[in-house]
């Protein structure tokens, strides 16, 4: 397997699996959907941090020193977005399923932590996309840049709710794949 194929798998597969799981995301958390909500977010728990790899790997293919900055910001995303998933996804589903009435406490905290993670994801994406322009033309990179920035924005706004959050994951998978190919063509 080539390095490019390996990179394509690493940047695309987690996004596409999250998109598939997102197709089952309940629109609202109810007593009836609580168990599915909790299990779904438990399944997603090891996948969300993997989204930090795409901007870091693309940036690393362009410029190793600059990729450290992207990697640190991507790490912030992985930490804080995971906190959102644990609190609102896993904890929220457990609380709602038990009718404990604690959602008014846990959801605002989860929202704030998730916002930090989402902003970090947007920042890492924008920085990595900008770094791609160091090694390839705007014309070659633009489709991928538009896809990852749009996908990251939609992810921030819609999490993985149908349809826009699912679309966000598909756009990110396609955009990072495009950028991997664009960078590989220029650096090989």
Q: TL;DR of this structure?
A:
The protein is mainly α. The protein has 7 helices and no strands.
Question: What is the secondary structure topology, with strand pairs?
Answer:
Layout: H1 3-22, H2 34-44, H3 53-62, H4 64-98, H5 103-132, H6 138-158, H7 164-187
Task: Walk me through the structure.
The chain has 188 residues and is an all-alpha fold. The protein has one domain (3-187). It has helices at residues 3-22, 34-44, 53-62, 64-98, 103-132, 138-158, 164-187. Helix 1 runs antiparallel to helix 7 (164-187). It is elongated, with a radius of gyration of 17 Å.
The DSSP helix count reads: 7
Helix content: over 70%
- Unreliable spans: none
Biggest β-sheet strands, sense, barrel: none
Compute the CA-based radius of gyration.
17 Å
Q: Distance N terminus to C terminus?
A: 16 Å
**What global shape is seen?**
elongated
Number of strands: 0
Question: What is the element string, with H for helices and E for strands?
Answer: HHHHHHH
Integer tally of domains? 1
SS-derived structural category: mainly alpha
Q: What is the subunit arrangement here? A: single chain
Provide the β-strand percentage band.
Answer: under 5%
Overall mean confidence score, pLDDT = 94
Which properties best describe this structure?
single chain, mainly alpha, 7 helices
């Amino acid at each position: 397997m080539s390095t490019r194929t390996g990179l394509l798998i690493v940047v695309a597969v987690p996004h596409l699996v999250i998109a598939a799981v997102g197709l089952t995301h309940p629109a609202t958390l109810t007593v009836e959907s609580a168990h599915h909500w909790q299990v779904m977010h438990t399944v997603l728990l090891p996948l969300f941090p993997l989204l930090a790899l795409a901007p870091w790997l693309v940036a690393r293919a362009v410029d190793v020193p600059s990729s450290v900055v992207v990697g640190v910001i991507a790490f912030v995303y992985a930490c804080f977005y995971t906190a959102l998933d644990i609190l609102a996804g896993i904890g929220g589903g457990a609380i709602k399923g038990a009718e404990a009435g604690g959602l008014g406490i846990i959801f605002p905290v989860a929202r704030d932590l998730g916002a930090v993670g989402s902003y970090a994801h947007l920042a890492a994406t924008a920085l990595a996309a900008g770094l791609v322009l160091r090694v390839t033309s705007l014309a070659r990179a633009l489709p991928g840049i538009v896809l990852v920035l749009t996908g990251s924005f939609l992810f921030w706004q819609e999490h993985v709710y149908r349809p826009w959050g699912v679309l966000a994951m598909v756009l990110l998978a396609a955009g990072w794949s495009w950028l991997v190919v664009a960078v590989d063509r220029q650096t090989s």
